[in-house]
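Students often ask why we bother encoding 3D structure as a string. The short answer is that it lets us treat folding as translation between two languages. Here is a chain of 249 residues written in the first language.
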Amino acid sequence: MRTLRVQHGFTLVELLVAVALMALMAAMSWRGLDGMVTAHKRLTQHADAVLTLQTGLAQWGADLDALAQQPNTPSIDWDGRVLRLLRQGSQSADEGLHVVAWSQRRVGDTLVWLRWQSPPLTTRAALQAAWNQAARWGQNPSDDDRQREVRITPLLGWQIFFFRGGAWTNPLSSADAAAQTSLPQSPARGAGGSLFAGIGTNGEPTAKVATGSKAMPDGVRLVLTLPAELAVSGVINRDWARSGLGAAQ
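And here it is in the second language, the structure alphabet:
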């Protein structure tokens, strides 16, 4: 008499349960992977935002460190909207001077901190034109002006203070005006309209960088208010002191 062997397989219910479990595990794995990708993306954005801000602040300090002085020409000016600087070139001694401007402007739906820089300037006429152009850029930039600007970081607001006469003052206040003292001007140089050493009419070096007719501040304080959604948010202060002077208090 033969023994009948019964072979057992998976029932349809068991298969459905197994498929459901596999789908649940796949969904959980996907959520975990998606969370890792999102976290990595946020970390990358955080690092990029911090690096961009650090680079902008480093450029701010470099511009102030390179301030140049010319007779009857301000080296630094703040009109409440645009900070204009006259700085030496960074490539070589005979590169020329640059007019640099910092401002805040709405780009799309975001207020952005911006930097603008002129081409190298080798004549007084070019310097004056660039100085005026920097002011216009802060108010109503042309397409050509926008080509020379760099976006630094979103910004809710910013303030500038000068350190003169042993105290921090608003550059637009009467207290700051009273703290300014006139500096002696350097003797006039040869014809040709050259600005500084290295571009005399005969191609030979001329006098050293001249002293301006307005006193530069002993220090500059930058106050930035950053949006809450940035990696670094809140109020940031950055103080700069002229070389050879103690840190402004």
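Translate back mentally: The mean pLDDT is 78. Keep this in mind for the problem set.
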